[in-house]
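User: Teach me something about this protein's shape.
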Amino acid sequence: MDPINLSKSYDPAPIEDKRYQLWLDAGLFTADPSAQGEPFSVVIPPPNVTGALHMGHALNNTLQDVTCRTRRMQGYNVLWVPGTDHAGIATQNVVERNLAGKGVTRQELGREAFVEKVWEWKEQYGSRIINQLKKLGSSCDWSRERFTMDEGLSEAVRRVFVELYEKGLIYRGKYLINWCPRCHTALSDLEVEHQEAQGKLYEIAYPFVEGDGHVVVQTTRPETMLGDTAIAVHPSDERHAHLVGRRVVLPLVGRVIPIIADNMVDPEFGSGLVKITPAHDPNDFLVGQRHGLEQIQVIDGEGKMLVGVDGQGVGMDRLEAREMIVAKLEQTGALLRTIEHLHSLGHCYRCSTVIEPYLSEQWFVRAKPLADAGVAATKEGRIRFVPEQWEGVYFQWMEQIRDWCISRQLWWGHRIPAWYCEEPECSEIVVAMEAPSKCPRCGSTHLRQDEDVLDTWFSSALWPFSTMGWPHETDDLKRYYPTALLVTAFDIIFFWVARMIMFGIEFMGDVPFKDVYIHALVRDENGQKMSKSKGNVIDPLEIIEQYGADALRLTLAALTVQGRDIFLSANRIETYRFFLNKLWNASRFALLNLQDAPEDLTIDDASLRLHDRWILARTREVIGEMTRLQEGYFVGEAARLMYDFVWSELCDWYLELSKPALRGDEGVARKRATQAVLLVVFKNVLKLLHPIIPFATEELWNAFPFVSEGAILLQQKWPLVDDVHKIDDAESVVYRMDFLREVVRVVRNLRAEARLTPQQPVAKVVLLLHKPEDRMVIEQNADLIRLLTRVEELDFMEAVSRVKPPQSLAAVFAQGELFMPVGDLLDLEKETARLRGEAAKIQKEIERAEKKLANEEFLKKAPAEVVEKEHAQVAEGRAKLARIEENIKSFSAV
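Assistant: First, the predicted structure itself:
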């Protein structure tokens, strides 16, 4: 076999770009709907075209890539569709800022020219995040890359809008929506971020029209009282039942308004009386609809006042107006008191401006019929959430769904396909796929298209089928829809997952995906959410530059636990980079020892020793377990299993135990048998690791003699248990090897306890074993134990004559006891003094823990796991003390 051609140390820089280009050139990511294999399709959660790769993207795409690479190797016909989202508000803001730097506004440019500028920006910068996903190793089918505003998807969006409108599931109406005064657009409930803020409750007296007295109302927004049209109480509130039907005078305005009863009122809040402002509060809007109240708008779309007091305040910012109105209430005596109040304020998710409930003409999706179908499909088991806990969250939202406001007051996006007849006597609304030439009702050619665009999430909701060519019947749709898996974060279950389910069932007659894997957030090492303002952001591109994409992928995978957030730090990434070094060096060791191996190398069962049988048995077990974990989307468990198997079992144990045979110390047959085992184990290890760390494994794969020239690891079949030589007594082999490893660990621990250097030999150890067959394991492998422990002689003691050898350290383990005489290795007087000092420290720790456990207050307040930890420390401390006392006693024996 040819000498190895691997560099002496692992360096990802020259490997990763080279290997990625090799996969692209070979067309390995390109799906073929006519090819064999069960279809397995995934659509990427389209990142914003304005975006740059962050750790959330890195995690999300690592999880998808691990799964897609595994399925390809398992023989599935895999399609992973990539693409980007046009991100209406975000992209428009970016381009507007760029224009502002040149002293130009979009209004000065006009709509057509501005949209042209946005397309220019998209062409220049829109591929940035796609290129970054390639750096991560994402094996998407780039030939099928889509954009939510490309021509095909635009056609799909118009078709959906028109069909829903014709079914009565899209309508236009005046409604109270969430409005951003800065972005000048409507926001869905999901786009409003609620933050707690310190505010004030203003207690205001509303005097009765007839008779003396007043009612007391509390509000956090006195500026909206100018639009009050009623006061409400709860129907069952006996304190205020007598007030229903009476009328009060609205302070500062003088308008007479009624007192009504409505279930919306919380009788426990404040005075139990609530002012009703139908045009400026979502709950009040519904109350107004039920009671036929007038809708008086007092704040405009800029957040400025439309109505003033005594000729003051019109055009004033709403927050400035609040101060003016409070001052006037104080002057008139209507303000009874002001109370500090912590409350939740809605903010725009894009610019963080406090949102304003705003009454306007908007387009809506009648969501409940669509949501009901989505709930039924999930309850029937046609959609599965992983972890299952997210299913309940999904149900809760879907079952309480409100109509979805889909119009946005932007220029960038899918313009609503609705045209208005401008003839005063007609006012027809035409919803159509293409612009109509005339009004179908009156024949007028004076038609004006709706100025608004659709919510970005509207086009994203079609993603699983629009990306495959719908509304046309395509081979991709026939072969790959519904998709097999969606991987996304929990925070867009409502924004995106639920809406894809609703639209998929409505337009395709089937669910859009079978499994929904919900991953958690990536936080910093202290559990804080990453943000630029906190300075705790870890840039994945910087990490890839420093440690390589494989190290980042392995870290994110290994830290993943279904349902738990990931706490990430540079130190953790460095730890997993060490694993790649370990794998690289282990592969170099194997290759160096395979150079003289014959090409027809096979495993000769008769030439295998215990450790050979054990690593083969464990490899079979790991293949089975990895297959189960990957099919259940337990990516974290899979990564940790491979980390432990390669580092702890293959490298730390098998490779060390194989060295005598590979040196030729055990004869030719044993050398060939060991070489054959190395080939089998490394062949399967590289295959199992490939989906997680594709670059390093591809490079290593091509260095091994089991690879024909030009072969690519990604094209290899996923390992099967029976690919590895079967060990008939595997269970017994694993037990015996675990026992041998335990003996080595015990000796090493005693050496460490005696503070012996690694080079310092130990004359002998004495074993007392419970089972005779265990002694046979030691005797058959004594040379290996001596190799790993630097012990010259292994002796045995019968249980009936148990007498601890004098001046020895002792350890108890599951299969027996082990004694290591140290009289001629240590200064026993100094060691005794050291042990007594250690015993004193342990005694103090025991007393501290016992004092805590005797404290009733501690037992009442401390969590159960904390109390249990203290109990465990006491038990462990006492066991240590007993061992120390026994060792001291042994040292004094002659």
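Now, about its shape. The first helix runs from residue 13 to 25. The radius of gyration is 36 Å. If you'd like, I can walk through any region in more detail.
User: That's plenty for now, thanks!
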